[in-house]
Write a structure and sequence with these properties.
The structure is a homodimer.
Chain A: H1 3-21, H2 26-42, H3 44-61, H4 65-71, H5 75-90, E1 98-103, E2 109-116, E3 119-123, H6 129-140, E4 144-148, H7 154-169, E5 178-180, H8 187-193, E6 201-205, H9 208-215, E7 222-225, E8 230-234, H10 240-252, E9 261-267, H11 268-284, E10 288-291, H12 293-298, E11 303-304, E12 318-324, H13 327-337, E13 342-346, H14 350-359, E14 364-369, E15 386-388, E16 396-398, E17 404-415
């Protein structure tokens, strides 16, 4: 089989399985999830061995350290994968929920019911745990899944998918419901993105370039999980101690994730008071500062921010800092350079807070808290398949509900329309 | 300006206006909608004149009668357009609704709030009333709109958009919030579908070919309003009088719309009893029947259905009819040939009804009622911008809520993430 035939086969098998999946009861799904978790624990050694093969290739090819770090599966990470699946089994099944119910003037009973999406495609990079996490969330929400991981993790992903498939199919999940594209040929991604007859939605997790390239040729509706250029604006009315703690947490606690702060905006009225201590604290944690002219004037020796810095997702211990004249300029800056992910204001002034919260067009907007909270677990969804940076279908952290669609179920007693 | 520059200009103006639109109060929006309604009534003569120019071109070019019928604006249709806008003013504003609210374990207050989508693009054909209806719905839901109608209606659409723009901008709607692409150059559609920096979502209303061609090159998320190949399955346990009324209504009451029945499936156990009367009744209403072998054996002289008939959206007084052995074969047939729009079962048997309702993967599924009810007005949404035939973002009739996105508003007192 060539690449196209392989993808068609996997997608069609998933489509067929999805019709059975959509009516499988919660008990069977939860049993399968627990069996998958147990199988991962049992086969941790084999997973480790295959992961080492990927790490060797990565070393040979000189993969960047950050990517190697994401690729690596430690015993703790394998254990976390298993726990993740068991946790998904404990979540409430979203399928069948009656979202709205009404009696129409025609006498018809109208129910808006939550149903599975059908077949969900996941295209992702580096982190092999996504193979297990995504499969778990898709199955629990009644979907079949078609997985396409990065070539750098091919051996890890293949072994994980084989292990969870065996466990799932042995526990009542229909064969084909877990589709895994084994070829590393890039053409497979493009084929997958054009299978709108069998795949209902594709989640794209990856860099800007990967997302744009796939999204522009896709006929399947895609959900972009794009970059996070997150801002914290420290207003003139901020409690400066609180602002320091929030900014430090947003930048330093985990710089490599999408909800970390990349740009700090500071009101001019408090810049001279706030910046020296703040920047000292950040510098001591190893953060490189790139400032505008005003910042450089206040803190001699700070590196100048270039134009492209304002739109950069560093994912690293680097922070661009700008002094603004008011909340309007902060909002304007975020509209221009932000990525619509997560942005925060620190202020004691309710009017400025409301202006910021209402006008900043991002998935999550914060008042007096760190942007690091944008996460399905923190938001009470139990788990997340990623964070959508687009506005249609789902925005922000995507949990089980965001992997479903709806259906109108209409019951009558012979009604016809006039 | 060339086509590309024109589209960029209109889309960017809409983007800028959308930032103001998202925070405009309901009163201003409703005032503008009423002013738009009044302006359409006042300028009905001018609209009629411009529509006649389009009708002349259509006659010269030999446009199909069905399309001419859709294009034509009578006094009553112009009045209906005005009433439609006034009705939208009366609907509840969806913006700002708190969909969910919770206190997180971190102490943060999390609100999931309904917000406008931003800029909504509408690509449509023939019917000029869509210009007014879509604009009304988009403005009420806090969005800016970019409209692109069919070239056959260019004069009608241009005059309508000019009239409603003047009225809206004179009533507090920001300039640029109603974008209308005046060029009839087809390239404009492709440009529009690739402006993901400024357009947040595009609704595609039109034929299969138009939708596929645009969707496959789009970088803006699109919502397909595709065809309706709707089925009615008459089960062995159907009340045959009820089945006759439902099938007659579903086929004959308005054959040119997407929720009309295109295929009737009949259980073999009742076919000989049900079909002769039913087909006589349909034939008397001018319906041409295309049957499978069993139907032809029962009703001599019926035309044979060809393979492509089963997937055909006739939008006309034509019906394909097939005899099936049970509800499973009916469901199987719909899965293979249906378009996921609206499908009905007529039965007195609750098990068969539930199997059908749970397994048929369509936006609306009916038990003992006509598929003709799939409509935003009938479903209590007040108005609709169309009917989505895809599963992501919105499915079935799309009203004001379906033109919105969400935003997480998080309020804290200095919380940082561990």
């Amino acid at each position: 089989m060539n690449v196209k035939e392989t993808v068609i086969k996997v997608a069609n098998e998933a489509k067929n399985a999805s019709r059975i999946m959509s009516n499988i009861d919660s008990k069977t799904k939860d049993k399968a999830l627990n069996a998958m978790a147990a199988a991962i624990e049992k086969n941790a050694g084999e997973i480790k061995t295959e992961n080492e093969r990927d790490l060797e290739t990565a070393a040979r090819q000189g993969l960047a350290a950050a990517l190697v770090e994401r690729l690596k599966l430690t015993a703790a990470r394998i254990e976390a994968m298993a726990c993740g699946l068991a946790d998904i089994a404990k979540l409430k099944d979203p399928v069948g929920e009656v979202i709205k119910e009404s009696k129409l003037k025609s006498g018809l009973l109208l129910k808006k019911v939550r149903v599975p999406m059908g077949v969900v495609g996941i295209i992702y990079e580096s982190r092999p745990n996504v193979t297990a996490d995504s499969t778990g969330l898709c199955l629990k929400s009644g979907n079949a899944v078609v997985l396409r991981g990065g070539s750098e993790a091919i051996n890890s992903n293949t072994v994980i998918s084989t292990i969870i498939k065996d466990a799932a199919y042995g526990s009542g999940i229909p064969e084909g419901a877990i589709g895994f594209i084994e070829t590393i040929d890039r053409a497979a991604v493009n084929e997958m993105s054009r299978m709108d007859g069998s795949i209902d939605m594709i989640i794209l997790r990856g860099g800007d370039r990967m997302i744009s390239s796939i999204a522009s040729g896709a006929t399947v509706p895609v959900i972009r999980h794009g970059k996070g250029v997150c801002h914290t604006y420290v207003d003139a009315f901020a409690d400066l101690k609180m602002a320091r703690d929030i900014c430090f947490n947003a930048k330093v606690s985990r710089p490599g994730v999408c909800n970390a702060m990349e740009t700090m905006l500071v009101h001019k009225g408090i810049a001279e008071k706030f910046l020296p201590g703040m920047i000292k604290m950040l510098a001591e944690a190893g953060v490189e500062i790139r400032g505008d002219e005003t910042v450089k004037a206040i803190i001699p020796g700070v590196k100048a921010a270039a134009g492209q810095d304002w739109a950069e997702e560093y994912l690293d211990l680097i922070l661009s800092v700008k002094v603004v004249k008011d909340v309007d300029e902060a909002v304007e800056h975020i509209a221009r350079y932000g990525s619509g992910h997560s942005d925060a204001i620190v202020t004691g002034n309710i009017e400025n807070a409301e202006k910021f919260l209402n006008t900043v067009d991002s998935a999550a907007v914060y008042w007096n808290a760190s942007t690091r909270f944008t996460d399905g677990g923190e938001f009470g969804m139990g788990a997340e398949i990623g964070i959508s940076t687009q506005k249609s279908h789902a925005r922000g952290p995507m949990g089980l509900e965001e992997l479903t669609s709806i259906k109108y179920v209409v019951t009558g007693s012979g009604q016809v329309r006039k």
